[in-house]
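From the shared-data thread, chain only:
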Amino acid sequence: MGAPPYIAGQSAYFLSVNRNKRSISVDLKDESNRERVRKLIASSDVVVENFKPGVMRKLGLDYESVRQLNERIIYCSISGFGQTGPQGGAAGGVRPHDIGNERTDEHNR
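Structure, as tokens:
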């Protein structure tokens, strides 16, 4: 392994910025998993999501819904082009088929 110092296979930087953090990965299309997430949210400090605007609302996990479970929750939505505006609903990031092909990249036209 190169670059930063590593401790037990993890970079010292990663360990320093993620100290005492816990995270999970779940399939939110499954209602039983959404119920598990709701239970976790009730005792959590922060929710961070990066879906296209409107997805969390469809799943019943938008800020308004989550705040009913935990009024002190900090809710962070990360999106490529913001929550509103002309490209608010657009997906952010680079699509795999766009790499190296600017002609198919709608944002570079």
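Strands lie at 6-7, 10-11, 46-49, 74-77.
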